[in-house]
Amino acid sequence: MVSAQSEVPPRIATNNVGKMKTKGEILFEKANQAFENQDDEAAFKYYLQSAKAGYIDAYVEVGDCYEQGWGVEINNEKALEWYKKSAYASVALGQYLLGRAYFLGLLGLEVDKQKGIEWLWKAESGLSEDAAAFLADCFIEGNGVEQNIEEGVRLLKEAAEWGNEYAQKELARRYEIGLGVEKDLEKAKYWRSKAPFAPPYKGVSA
Asked: What is the pTM assigned to this prediction?
């Protein structure tokens, strides 16, 4: 399933002791358990019930099921519908997926890079590591925005600090050869150690 983005800086802890779980939350937990048990049909059923009960974390999961065909037939229109609901509910992961869909013309959408960038910035503001990495690539390549290497590297560092392995590996490469940053082999070694198994970096907006 879609994994929620890493979130750094840390959030303020909330005391939930004695707090009763909502129906949507209980269904969401059942969905996660079903997915762990490789029962995709049950997982989808519970995610959908959770979403319909108003649990916003389930919105993006329902969309993901429709997009990937997990427990239900692939349906791009419904995937987009649930990603939009998630995005408009201010869920950073949903905003990232919607922005990516607009930027690349996925899920039956026409390519709209401007609208894609707008949603990606919203996701980045919500601490989405994937959105930060995507935007970094856009600025470095001048894809959908005016090329700005400095801003691209800033976003690449941000994504790396938030845990994006592709960004960590690319940042390591840049420190090794002094590309857009001052050459620093110690920093290169540090960032490479953070993502030893990441695939070669090819640009997240490709």
From this structure: 0.84
Q: What is the mean pLDDT of residues 71-78?
A: 97
* 8 A C-beta contact, residue 47 and residue 61: yes
Report the alpha-carbon distance of residue 141 to residue 124 in Å, rounded: 18
Kindly indicate the confidence band of residue 195, based on its pLDDT and cuts at 50, 70 and 90: confident
- Residues 6 or more apart in contact with residue 161 via CB below 8 angstroms: 8
Which residue matches tokens 């845990």?
163
Statement: residue 9 has pLDDT above 80:
no
The helix-helix angle for 92-104 and 129-141 (nearest 10°) equals 30
3-state SS class at 77:
helix
**Could you give phi then psi for residue 65, rounded to 5 degrees?**
-60, -45
Cβ(133)–Cβ(159) under 8 Å?
A: yes
pLDDT at 2: 56
